[in-house]
C-alpha cells in the first residue's frame, strides 16, 4: 500500500473490533468527537453544529448513521433527512425529508402544512420553524441530521444557515454532510468541522478483514491501493474479490469499471431500467420509472428484483434508491451524452403528462432543453414565477435560461425577457437586469412593448440609484405608451425619481397625477407606486402630516408597507399609534427587518438607547440572513450616534468604518448624505470643527431632498457643529429651515421645540431656550428635552442664575435614564460647578462593565429572567411585547456577557442573582 497513508488520522484505534459498522474502520477519532458532542448537548451544554466533509464514498453517511444511533440511545428525538440532486426546486424539501419522518417525527404534518403556506416569507418561516424546534427540544434533546447538503434546495440551505445560530441556547445538535466548502453552515461559534481524509493502510487492512473474514493477502493489499483510501470504493473492490478472486484488470476507473462489469451480467430490460433510474436521480419512484420506460409499474417486478439482488438498488417501501450515489453516477456516466439528454427530455415530458408540477420537470429540462423548445420555455417561466418570492436567485437563473432558449426573432422574446428582468431585479442582479432590458430594447419592439419594458426597468434603475436615467426613460416611454395601466406605472416611477430632486412641488404634482391615473385604470401596482412616491415626497419636503396620510393609505391598501407608515408616524411623535401598529404586526410575515428598524427608530425617539441598539443589531442580522443589506448604512449610523451619546468613540469609529466600506461598495445618494453627516459628527467630536462644518454644508448643498429626513432629529447638533466650525451663515440657514419645518408641522412639539432651540443657539437667546424647554416638556422625546435643558442650564450658569441647577439636573437625569452616559458625564461636570458645595457633589454614572451580570441592560435582565423561568423565545417576546427576533438578539448578548452556553447555565446564574422573579413587561 502507499506509504503516504500509513499511521494517518484515520488509523484504527486499539480495541476497535467492536465497531457497529465495518464502514467505520479508521473513523474512530471522528466518531469519538461526534459522541462527545451528543453527550455535551444531552448534558445541557447548549446547541452545536457538526459538519462532515469529504469526497463521495469517503464515509460521511456511515458516520452520520452511527451518530444517529448514538443520539437515539441517549434519548434524542431524531430528524434524519437527505437532500436529493434533482429536488432543488422544491422549497424546504431537504429539511422536510427528515422533520416529518421519524419515530416520533420532530414535526407534525399540521405544523409543516402551516409552514409551507408561508414558504414565500423566508424570515417568518425560519423563525416559526425555530420556535417549533425550540418547543420540541424543551424537555428532550434533538438531533437534526441532513445528508448531502450540497444538493439542498435554496430554502433549506437558507434555513440551515440561520437556524443553528438561532437555536444555540437549545439542546439541538445539527449534523450535516457535504462534499464541498460548508459555508455558510460553518459560521456558528460552536461548529465542529470534520474533514474526512483517505483511510490509512491499517484501517484499509482491517476493513478488508471485515469483508473477507480472513487476513489480507499481499496481492489484495496492493490491489486496494487503487481505492485511494476511499472506503466505499475499497468495499466494492473487496466484494468483487470475495466473489471472484483478486485476478482481473487494474482499476484505473475503479468503480465505473466495476459497475460496468456488474451491469454486463444483467438482462437488457434491467439494464435499461437502471439507466432510466439514474436519470431520475438517486431516489426515484417506480411509477416515474415505469412511465419513462413506457411500461406499467406492475410489469417491472423482475427488473427491480434483479437490480436489488445485484446490490445496485435498495427498496425502502416507498422509493427505489441506488445503494450509494457513486453507483448511480457510475451508471449515469456510462450513458452517452446524447442518450442522457434524450432521456432527461423524455423524463420531463412524461412527468408533465402525468400531471406533475414544473418543480419536478424543470431539473430535467435544465439538462436537456434546446433552443426553440416552447414547452421548456413555458415550464421554466412558470417555475421561476413559483419560486421567485422565496428563492429569487434560482428564479433569476430559470428565467434567464428560458430567455436563452427563445429563438432570436420569436415574438415571445419580449414577454420572456420581461420576466427575466423582473427576476434578476428581485435577485439583486441590477446591472444584469438593466443589460438584459437594453438588449431587448435594441431589437426595437412595438411602442407599447417598449413602454412596458421601460416600466419594469424602472424598478431596476431605482435600485441602482440612477434617478436621472429613470427620469429620462420614463419621459420617453410616456410619449409612446397607450396602455392606461402602464402609463400610470410610468408616471408613478417618474414621481419617485423626482422625489430625489430639488423641485419637490413638481414631484408632488407628478405623484398626484400618477395616483389619479392609477385609480382610473384600476391598476394595483400603479396605485402602490403612486402612494409610495407621494409619501416619499412628503417626507423629503418635511410635510409630516401628508407623509402619514399617504403612507397610511398605502399600508391599508398593502400591509407589507406597514413599516413605512410606522416611520412616518414617528416623524409626528405619534408614538402610541406606532406601538399599536407594531403590536398588530406581531410576527406576521411582513418585511421583518424593516419592522424591527421601525421599532428601533421608535425606541430612539423614546430615549431607550439600549433597546434601540438591540433593535438595530437585530435588523442588521435579519438583512444579513437575507443577504440584502439595503439599510446597513442607516443602521450603522444610528448605532454610531448611540455610541457617541454613550461616550464610546471607539465603537462609533468602528461603525463609521463599516459605513465607509458599505458606501464604497454600493454608492447611493441617500447613503452618501447619511454617511457625510456621521463623518461630521465624528470629526466635530475629534476637534476638527472646520471639516465637520464643511461636511454639514455638503449635505445641505448636495442632498437637499434628504434635508428633513436626515436633519429633523439632528438639526440642533448640526447648528452646534456649524457654530463651532465658525460658519455662522450655515448655522443661521439651518435654524431658519428648522423654523420653516415647525411652521409646516404645527402639531408636532418636537418640531416647535427644536426650532426654538436652534434659533436660541444662533442668537444666544435665553428666552428662546426657556421656550424650547417648555415646549419639549409637552412632547414625547426625552433626548431633545435633555439637550435643551443642558444648554439652558449652561446659559443660566454663565449668567449666575441659580435656576441653572434645576435645568442641569433635569438634563443629567434624562441622559442617565436613557443610557447616554457620555452626555450625562458632560452635564455632571457643569452641575458640579453649579453646586460647588462639597456636600452637594453628584457622582457620575458608573460605567457599565463589558462582562458579568452588571453588564446586562434592563431589557436583557428581563429576557434572562423569563428564559430562566422556562419561557421560549416566542413566549418571552409575547410577555415583553417585542419581536422574537429581538429576544434572540438579547439572548445572544446575554450569553456573551455571562459566558454561558445554554439556558440551563443561564437559569443557574439568574437564580444566584435573585432576579428570576423580577422579569415583567413594561
Looking at how many chains there are and whether they match, the oligomeric state comes to: single chain
Number of strands: 8
User: What is the overall number of helices?
Assistant: 46
Strand content: under 5%
Structural category? mainly alpha
Helix content: 55-70%
List low-confidence stretches.
1-20, 247-255, 838-844, 915-922
Q: Provide the spatial order of strands within the biggest beta sheet.
A: 2-3-4-1-5
Query: Distance between termini?
Result: 71 Å
- The overall average pLDDT, rounded, is 86
Largest sheet: 5 strands, parallel
- Rg, rounded, reads 33 Å
Shape: globular
Give a written overview of the molecule.
The chain has 922 residues and is mainly alpha-helical. It contains 46 helices and eight strands. Helix 6 links the parallel strand 3 and strand 4. The radius of gyration is 33 Å and the shape is globular.
Keyword list:
single chain, 922 residues, mainly alpha, five-stranded parallel β-sheet, three-stranded antiparallel β-sheet, 8 strands, 4% strand, disordered N terminus
Task: Give me the secondary-structure topology.
Blueprint: H1 28-42, E1 48-53, H2 60-73, E2 77-82, H3 93-99, H4 109-116, H5 122-136, E3 142-147, H6 154-166, E4 172-178, E5 191-195, H7 201-212, H8 218-224, H9 231-244, H10 254-264, H11 268-280, E6 283-284, H12 286-293, H13 301-309, E7 313-315, E8 320-322, H14 325-333, H15 337-353, H16 358-368, H17 374-387, H18 392-405, H19 413-426, H20 430-441, H21 447-463, H22 467-478, H23 484-498, H24 504-521, H25 524-541, H26 544-557, H27 562-571, H28 575-585, H29 592-605, H30 609-626, H31 632-646, H32 649-665, H33 669-685, H34 689-702, H35 707-711, H36 715-724, H37 728-744, H38 749-763, H39 766-777, H40 782-798, H41 804-818, H42 821-834, H43 858-868, H44 873-880, H45 884-898, H46 903-913
Parallel strand pairs: 1-4, 1-5, 2-3, 3-4
Antiparallel strand pairs: 6-8, 7-8
Helix pairs in contact: 1-2, 5-6, 7-9, 10-14, 11-12, 11-13, 11-14, 15-16, 16-17, 17-18, 18-19, 19-20, 19-21, 20-21, 21-22, 21-23, 22-23, 23-24, 23-25, 24-25, 25-26, 26-27, 27-28, 27-29, 28-29, 29-30, 30-31, 30-45, 31-32, 31-33, 32-33, 33-34, 34-36, 36-37, 36-38, 37-38, 38-39, 38-40, 39-40, 40-41, ...
Amino acid at each position: 500500500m502507499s506509504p503516504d497513508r500509513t499511521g494517518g488520522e484515520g488509523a484504527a484505534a486499539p480495541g476497535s473490533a467492536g465497531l457497529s459498522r465495518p464502514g467505520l474502520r479508521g473513523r474512530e477519532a471522528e466518531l469519538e468527537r461526534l459522541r462527545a458532542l451528543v453527550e455535551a448537548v444531552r448534558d445541557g451544554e447548549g446547541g452545536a453544529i457538526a459538519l462532515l466533509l469529504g469526497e463521495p464514498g469517503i464515509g460521511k453517511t456511515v458516520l452520520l448513521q452511527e451518530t444517529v444511533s448514538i443520539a437515539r440511545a441517549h434519548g434524542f428525538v431524531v430528524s434524519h433527512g437527505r437532500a436529493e440532486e434533482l429536488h432543488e426546486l422544491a422549497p424546504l424539501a431537504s429539511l422536510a425529508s427528515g422533520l416529518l419522518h421519524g419515530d416520533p417525527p420532530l414535526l407534525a404534518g399540521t405544523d409543516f402544512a402551516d409552514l409551507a403556506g408561508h414558504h414565500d416569507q423566508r424570515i417568518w418561516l425560519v423563525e416559526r420553524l425555530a420556535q417549533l424546534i425550540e418547543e420540541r427540544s424543551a424537555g428532550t434533546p434533538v438531533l437534526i441530521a441532513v445528508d448531502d447538503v450540497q444538493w439542498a434546495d435554496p430554502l433549506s440551505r437558507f434555513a440551515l444557515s440561520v437556524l443553528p445560530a438561532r437555536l444555540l441556547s437549545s439542546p439541538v445538535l445539527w449534523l450535516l454532510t457535504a462534499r464541498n466548502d460548508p459555508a455558510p453552515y460553518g459560521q456558528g461559534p460552536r461548529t465542529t468541522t470534520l474533514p474526512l481524509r483517505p483511510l490509512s493502510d491499517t484501517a484499509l487492512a482491517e476493513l478488508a478483514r471485515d469483508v473477507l473474514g480472513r487476513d489480507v493477502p499481499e496481492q489484495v493489499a496492493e490491489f486496494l491501493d487503487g481505492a485511494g483510501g476511499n472506503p466505499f470504493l475499497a468495499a466494492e473492490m473487496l466484494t468483487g474479490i470475495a466473489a471472484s478472486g483478486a485476478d482481473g484488470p487494474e482499476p484505473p476507473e475503479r468503480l465505473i469499471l466495476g459497475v460496468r462489469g456488474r451491469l454486463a451480467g444483467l438482462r437488457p430490460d434491467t439494464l435499461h431500467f437502471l439507466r432510466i433510474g439514474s436519470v431520475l436521480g438517486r431516489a426515484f419512484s417506480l411509477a416515474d420509472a415505469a412511465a419513462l420506460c413506457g411500461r406499467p409499474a406492475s410489469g417491472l417486478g423482475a427488473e427491480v428484483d434483479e437490480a436489488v439482488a445485484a446490490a445496485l438498488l435498495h427498496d425502502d417501501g416507498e422509493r427505489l434508491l441506488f445503494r450509494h450515489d457513486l453507483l448511480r453516477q457510475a451508471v449515469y456516466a456510462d450513458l452517452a451524452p446524447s442518450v442522457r439528454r434524450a432521456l432527461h427530455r423524455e423524463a420531463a415530458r412524461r412527468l408533465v403528462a402525468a400531471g406533475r408540477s414544473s418543480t419536478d420537470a424543470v431539473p430535467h429540462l435544465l439538462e436537456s432543453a434546446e433552443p426553440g423548445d416552447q414547452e421548456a420555455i413555458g415550464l421554466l417561466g412558470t417555475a421561476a414565477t413559483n419560486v421567485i418570492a422565496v428563492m429569487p436567485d434560482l428564479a433569476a437563473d430559470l428565467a434567464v435560461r428560458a430567455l436563452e432558449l427563445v429563438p432570436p426573432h420569436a415574438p415571445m422574446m419580449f414577454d420572456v425577457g420581461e420576466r427575466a428582468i423582473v427576476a434578476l431585479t428581485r435577485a439583486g442582479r441590477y446591472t444584469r437586469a438593466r443589460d438584459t432590458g437594453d438588449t431587448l430594447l435594441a431589437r426595437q419592439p412595438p411602442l407599447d412593448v417598449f413602454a412596458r419594458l421601460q416600466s419594469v426597468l424602472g424598478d431596476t434603475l431605482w435600485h441602482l440609484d440612477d434617478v436621472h436615467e429613470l427620469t429620462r426613460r420614463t419621459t420617453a416611454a410616456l410619449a409612446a405608451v397607450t396602455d392606461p395601466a402602464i402609463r400610470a406605472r410610468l408616471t408613478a416611477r417618474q414621481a419617485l425619481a423626482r422625489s430625489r430632486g430639488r423641485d419637490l412641488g413638481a414631484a408632488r404634482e407628478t405623484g398626484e397625477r400618477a395616483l389619479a391615473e392609477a385609480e382610473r385604470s384600476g391598476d394595483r401596482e400603479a396605485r402602490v407606486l403612486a402612494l409610495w412616491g407621494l409619501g416619499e415626497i412628503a417626507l423629503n419636503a418635511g410635510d409630516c402630516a401628508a407623509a402619514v396620510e399617504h403612507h397610511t393609505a398605502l399600508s391599508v391598501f398593502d400591509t407589507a408597507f406597514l413599516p413605512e407608515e410606522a416611520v412616518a408616524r414617528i416623524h409626528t411623535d405619534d408614538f402610541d399609534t406606532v406601538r399599536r401598529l407594531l403590536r398588530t404586526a406581531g410576527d406576521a410575515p411582513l418585511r421583518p427587518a424593516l419592522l424591527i428598524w421601525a421599532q428601533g427608530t421608535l425606541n430612539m425617539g423614546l430615549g431607550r438607547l439600549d433597546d434601540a441598539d438591540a433593535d438595530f443589531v437585530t435588523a442588521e442580522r435579519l438583512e444579513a440572513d437575507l443577504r440584502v443589506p439595503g439599510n446597513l448604512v442607516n443602521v450603522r449610523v444610528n448605532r454610531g450616534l448611540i455610541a457617541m451619546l454613550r461616550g464610546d468613540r471607539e465603537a462609533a469609529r468602528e461603525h463609521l468604518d463599516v459605513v465607509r466600506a458599505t458606501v464604497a461598495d454600493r454608492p447611493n445618494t441617500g447613503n452618501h448624505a447619511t454617511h457625510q453627516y456621521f463623518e461630521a459628527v465624528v470629526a466635530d467630536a475629534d476637534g476638527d470643527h472646520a471639516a465637520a462644518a464643511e461636511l454639514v454644508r455638503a449635505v445641505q448643498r448636495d442632498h437637499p431632498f434628504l434635508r428633513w429626513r436626515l436633519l429633523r432629529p439632528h438639526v440642533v447638533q448640526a447648528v452646534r457643529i456649524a457654530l463651532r466650525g465658525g460658519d455662522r451663515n450655515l448655522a443661521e440657514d439651518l435654524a431658519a429651515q428648522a423654523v420653516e419645518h415647525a411652521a409646516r408641522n404645527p402639531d408636532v412639539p418636537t418640531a416647535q421645540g427644536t426650532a426654538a432651540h436652534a434659533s436660541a443657539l444662533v442668537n444666544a437667546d435665553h428666552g428662546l431656550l426657556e421656550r424650547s424647554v417648555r415646549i419639549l416638556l409637552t412632547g414625547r422625546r426625552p433626548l431633545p428635552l435633555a439637550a435643551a435643558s443642558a444648554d439652558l442650564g449652561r446659559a443660566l450658569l454663565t449668567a449666575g442664575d441659580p435656576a441653572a441647577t434645576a435645568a442641569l439636573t433635569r438634563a443629567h437625569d434624562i441622559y442617565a435614564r436613557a443610557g447616554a452616559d457620555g452626555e450625562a458625564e458632560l452635564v455632571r461636570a457643569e452641575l458640579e460647578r453649579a453646586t460647588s458645595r462639597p456636600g452637594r457633589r453628584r457622582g457620575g454614572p458608573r460605567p457599565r462593565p463589558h462582562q458579568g451580570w452588571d453588564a446586562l441592560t434592563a431589557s436583557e435582565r428581563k429576557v434572562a429572567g423569563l428564559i430562566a423561568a422556562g419561557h421560549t423565545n416566542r413566549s418571552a417576546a409575547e410577555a415583553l411585547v417585542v419581536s422574537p427576533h429581538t429576544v434572540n438578539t438579547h439572548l445572544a448578548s446575554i450569553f456573551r456577557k455571562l459566558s454561558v452556553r445554554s439556558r440551563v447555565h443561564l437559569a443557574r446564574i439568574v437564580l444566584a442573582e435573585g432576579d428570576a422573579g423580577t422579569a415583567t413587561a413594561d
